[in-house]
Design goal:
mainly alpha, Tetracycline Repressor, domain 2, 71% helix, elongated, HTH_TetR, HTH-type_TetR-like_transc_reg, DNA-binding, Helix-turn-helix domain-containing protein, Tet_transcr_reg_TetR-rel_C_sf
């Protein structure tokens, strides 16, 4: 987190949590443009002027929430078992299962990320685009250094496989949103596991199937 948020992070944990919960709820329920900082302050039990004492503007608050929720998801996924798994497809299975569990217990996390990356506003769209561009290589470098990439066939670029999984998830969410239905995490998890199986059979050396 940036040093400019030092005042906010020096607050007692219960105060920080109240503001974070209120902000993630409002940003998850409303598009960025319609999300009200007055509503966030009211739900958090602080004044609007107090809110802007910690955050310069709505954009600052929004990006802080984005970073904090991203870290929360990473903390939930990268657990004690994570580094015991060296098979790429098994670790992806573990990751999506952990994410589904987190979203099940905190559904507004999914609402926030869906609104962030599929209904972005011009004030934050540039940052969100850069975030997504950097996210995949950063994930591989930070969390997948222990994976046995040698299990892929010599003619397969593992990074293409990683990106294909991202594109599959992206396309699935776009299709669901276009249809106007609610996102079903159980259905998405089931689909994702099918994609994992297909890609493993298409890209792994025979001895690892």
């Amino acid at each position: 987190m940036s040093d400019r948020f030092e005042r906010f992070e020096s607050l007692p944990e219960d105060r920080r949590r109240a503001i974070m919960d209120a902000a993630s709820e409002v940003f998850g329920d409303e598009d960025y443009a319609r999300a009200s900082t007055a509503d966030i302050a009211r739900r958090a039990g602080v004044s609007k002027s107090q809110l802007f004492f910690y955050f310069k503007n709505k954009r600052d608050l929004y990006l802080y929430v984005l970073t904090a929720l991203t870290r929360r998801v990473a903390d939930a996924v990268v657990d004690d078992r994570w580094y015991q798994i060296d098979d790429f497809f098994e670790i992806m299975r573990h990751a999506v299962t952990q994410k589904a569990g987190l979203v099940g217990s905190s559904p507004r996390i999914m609402s926030f990320f869906v609104r962030a990356f599929y209904l972005g506003h011009r004030d934050v769209s540039g940052v969100l685009d850069a975030f997504m561009t950097d996210a995949v290589p950063a994930m591989v470098q930070t969390y997948l250094g222990h994976v046995r990439w040698d299990r892929f066939r010599e003619d397969v670029d593992p990074m293409r496989v990683v990106r294909m999984l991202v594109w599959c998830g992206d396309g699935y969410l776009h299709e669901q949103l276009r249809g106007g239905g609610e996102l079903d995490m159980e259905a998405m998890l089931s689909e994702f596991l099918v994609w994992l199986d297909w890609l493993k059979r298409a890209t792994y050396k025979e001895e690892y199937l």
